[in-house]
Write a structure and sequence with these properties.
Layout: H1 13-19, E1 26-30, E2 33-37, H2 42-62, E3 67-70, E4 89-92, E5 106-113, H3 118-128, E6 136-141, E7 147-151, E8 163-165, E9 169-172, E10 177-180, H4 181-184
């Protein structure tokens, strides 16, 4: 019997954080239901570490107060009491207490689409758009070199479509970062577009 099957049907975020087991799995709370996240594959982890290193180095070189954090917990603004999502990477420019389980005021969030998790990852992306501090959301594909970027517009709304980048540079305005999209895929074993 799984840990989640022993739970009441609906948990609040506070109940979830008190319950969440230290069982080697990563868990999210989605609309009151605990959901275990599947282990990531090589390509996913390679993208995560490459982008994380590029962002960390960029922020350090600029002397930025912002930090890049792998698998940060975030709380969507809509239905906050029953949601606790875990993107693959996040950047915040707000100090984070060392014992915090979530990142306050993220400005950039990253989701990596692995085979079998695209629907769940896009559901997370839409939840992230409700976080007032989020300026950009980057979605990376693992089957091809392709980045999709959502950038909050000056009026606070989100665009109807993502900006898709399969070659050349992409920019993350929220932290003043630009790099060739191929640099993210350096160790992921992925080439070209699908």
């Amino acid at each position: 019997m799984s840990a989640a099957s022993k739970l009441p049907f609906h948990l609040t975020r506070e109940d979830f954080l008190a319950w969440c087991p230290d069982d080697g799995q990563r868990w999210q709370l989605i609309d009151g239901e605990p959901v275990a996240m599947a282990p990531a594959r090589f390509g996913h982890n390679a993208l995560l570490i490459e982008l994380g290193a590029l962002l960390r180095n960029h922020l350090a070189e600029r002397g930025s107060p912002c930090v890049a954090i792998a698998t940060p917990g975030v709380v969507p603004h809509v239905r906050a009491g029953v949601n606790f999502r875990v993107p693959d990477l996040g950047v915040t420019c707000t100090p984070v207490p060392t014992d915090s389980v979530f990142v306050p005021a993220p400005v950039l969030l990253v989701e990596i689409l692995s085979p079998g998790n695209e629907r769940d990852s896009w559901a997370n992306v839409w939840a992230y758009t409700t976080i007032p501090s989020v300026r950009e959301i980057l979605v990376l594909h693992t089957k091809e070199i392709r980045a999709e970027l959502l950038r909050r517009q000056p009026d606070g709304n989100w665009p109807a479509n993502t900006l898709q980048v399969t070659e050349g540079e992409f920019a993350l305005d929220s932290i003043g970062f630009a790099a060739p999209v191929a640099a993210l895929y350096r160790t992921a074993g992925i080439s070209g577009t699908g």
